[in-house]
Amino acid sequence: MPVRRIDRKVRLFSLNIKRLIKDILAQIDYSLYRIGIKKCPIKVHTVEETIDDLIHTNKSMIRYGDGEITMIRGRSLVLQKVEPEIIEGLKRMLAYEHDGMIVTIPEIFDDLSIYRKESRQFWKDHLLFSRKVYEKYCAPDKEYYNTSVSRFYYYMSDKSQCAGLIENIKLIWKDKDVVVVEGERTHNGVGNDLLDGARTVERIIGPSSDAYAKLDEIMECCREYPKDRLFLVSLGVAAKFLTERLFLEGFRSLDIGHLDMEYEWYLHHADKKEKVPKHDIIGEKANLEAGYDRYLSQIKKRVK
């Protein structure tokens, strides 16, 4: 057998062993919390409670998923390079600095049975490496809200509630004047009815990656709108910082993350993560060819 093939098999075997050891350690760590030997004081509202609060209050929202926690640990993400000021800002906002702006985190500290099998192992591994981040920077006197407000379908074991959840999510912006701030590829509500209940929809298009570097320019575009607008922001890590700035200047802003992609998976009854074709559509010509005339007419500002 060629040496190269043997080396490849050895590396694969080594990776599998490391993955197995990690999963075992993650299960032990999780079990210690489940049986009460270790304590975790963090409380997270349900998805239903989170949606209800967003419908009936005027609160803004920033959301933390595993990516933001990973960045606090000093690692870059696919669409955002890590920088010290980003890390410090994420730590500060995770500590729940502002009344009137809710902070969401994953509901993973008590029971993972609500998630599909593959997701349970993912969250156990995540907690093995990141639990200390939550325990160090989450405010012990605050109750956090649920990041799955924008991840309501794919990761869930019981999908019977998904239809009701998304219909209630749509009530958050029903009959409101909405400004969507998103990357060029995102296309929130394009080709589906996610935003159809809004009174009006306008868009500010920002960079698809490393949007943090353009925050000042994006914020200047946002300031041109009256304070009664509801901002829906999909700009990765930068969305947290933009939402905080908007909130501090009297706007209401919701960091909705990948809600549109989740909705597409829900509409297509996806049982695995699928590529969403509209995410490959860039530029006016391609959008016109796709029939996205209305989307193009909604774009009022572009920041490159």
Report on the architecture of this protein:
This protein is of the alpha/beta class. The protein has 11 helices and 9 strands. It has helices at residues 3-34, 47-56, 66-72, 84-94, 117-137, 162-171, 215-222, 238-248, 259-267, 284-289, 293-298, and strands at 43-44, 60-63, 101-105, 143-146, 177-183, 200-206, 230-234, 252-255, 299-302. Strand 7, helix 8 (238-248) and strand 8 form a beta-alpha-beta unit. Helix 3 (66-72) crosses helix 5. It is globular.
Structure summarized in a few sentences:
With 304 residues, the chain is of the alpha/beta class. The chain is built from eleven helices and nine strands. It has helices at 3-34, 47-56, 66-72, 84-94, 117-137, 162-171, 215-222, 238-248, 259-267, 284-289, 293-298, and strands at residues 43-44, 60-63, 101-105, 143-146, 177-183, 200-206, 230-234, 252-255, 299-302.
Strand content: 5-15%
Question: What is the overall pLDDT average?
Answer: 92
What's the overall geometry? Answer: globular
- In percent, how helical is the residue content? 40-55%
Radius of gyration: 20 Å
Main beta sheet:
5 strands, parallel
Main sheet: strand order: 8-7-5-6-9
Strands, total number: 9
Q: Give the SSE string.
A: HEHEHHEHEHEEHEHEHHHE
Helices and strands: which structural class?
alpha/beta
Low-pLDDT segments: none
Amino-to-carboxy terminus distance: 52 Å
- Helical segment tally? 11
